[in-house]
């Protein structure tokens, strides 16, 4: 009947749905900012206790996160934060390059006169975050804000949806393999490429946009590769002559 209060079961549905969404958003941010370490176990009981909810919305939130590749379910029905692997790193950077090029080209095609100034304000915030780099998360979020600014200038709903998703997917990789190894000159170069991109967008120069994005992506990949290089292996001498206990092994050959 109209005006009747919902029953307990009817009221629980929307509440549980809101609870699952809240848990999803909170856990997602904790995963992307590495507050929840890759490969760590998810204690569903503890999460439910933190939010004052049952395990059902927790499970629903984990299913949503699993759909984004951020949580992995194990055969014993437990779950872990998805580990970071190198197996799809090439695919990720290929996709990021394609989407970034598309965003910049679309922005150069659809820009409005006032867009340049808005982008420059976001660039100022990014440069300030680099100078005051005690907080790496400030740099990360300032860069995300700037990239989302370019995305808004592109005025493409589909790119506007998939580009931030791609950026979020790579956030853990950047926090582990880029920012700890990027020097001031690396970050300054990235900031300079953004300044050049703003100029190219204002001029409608799509060719320049493609070239600048390529330069920027190559610089990022070089830092990531540097993070994977051995740091002390060359100074370790494993020859059998150095270690007497290995000499007998060498003589047996």
From TrEMBL:
Any one Pfam family match given in the protein's UniProt record, by short name: GntR
InterPro entries recorded: GntR_C, TF_FadR/GntR_C, Tscrpt_reg_HTH_GntR, WH-like_DNA-bd_sf, WH_DNA-bd_sf
PROSITE patterns the UniProt entry points to: HTH_GNTR (PS50949)
Keywords associated with the record: DNA-binding, Transcription, Transcription regulation
Domain HTH gntR-type, first and last residues per copy: 17-84
Superkingdom assignment: Bacteria
GO terms for MF: DNA binding; DNA-binding transcription factor activity
Record's protein name: Transcriptional regulator, GntR family
Taxonomic path: Bacteria, Pseudomonadati, Pseudomonadota, Alphaproteobacteria, Hyphomicrobiales
């Amino acid at each position: 009947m109209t005006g009747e209060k919902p029953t307990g079961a009817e009221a629980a549905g929307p509440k549980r749905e809101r609870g699952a969404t809240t848990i999803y958003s909170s856990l997602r941010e904790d995963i992307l900012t590495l507050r929840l370490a890759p490969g760590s176990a998810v204690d569903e009981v503890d999460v439910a206790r933190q939010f004052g909810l049952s395990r059902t919305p927790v499970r629903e939130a984990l299913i949503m996160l699993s759909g984004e590749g951020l949580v992995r379910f194990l055969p014993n029905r437990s779950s872990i934060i998805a580990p970071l692997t190198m197996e799809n790193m090439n695919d990720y950077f290929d996709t990021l390059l394609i989407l970034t090029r598309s965003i910049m080209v679309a922005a150069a095609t659809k820009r409005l006169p006032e867009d340049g100034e808005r982008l420059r304000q976001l660039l100022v915030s990014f440069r300030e975050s680099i100078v005051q780099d005690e907080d790496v998360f400030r740099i990360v979020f300032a860069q995300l804000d700037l990239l989302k600014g370019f995305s808004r200038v592109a005025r493409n709903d589909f790119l506007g949806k998939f580009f931030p998703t791609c950026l979020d997917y790579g956030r853990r990789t950047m926090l582990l393999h880029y920012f700890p190894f990027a020097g001031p000159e690396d970050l300054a170069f990235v900031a300079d490429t953004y300044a050049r991109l703003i100029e190219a967008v204002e001029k409608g120069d799509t060719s320049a946009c493609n070239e600048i994005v390529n330069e920027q992506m190559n610089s990022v990949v070089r830092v990531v590769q540097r993070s994977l290089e051995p740091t002390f292996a060359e100074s370790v001498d494993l020859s059998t002559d150095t270690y007497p206990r290995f000499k007998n092994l060498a003589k047996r050959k």
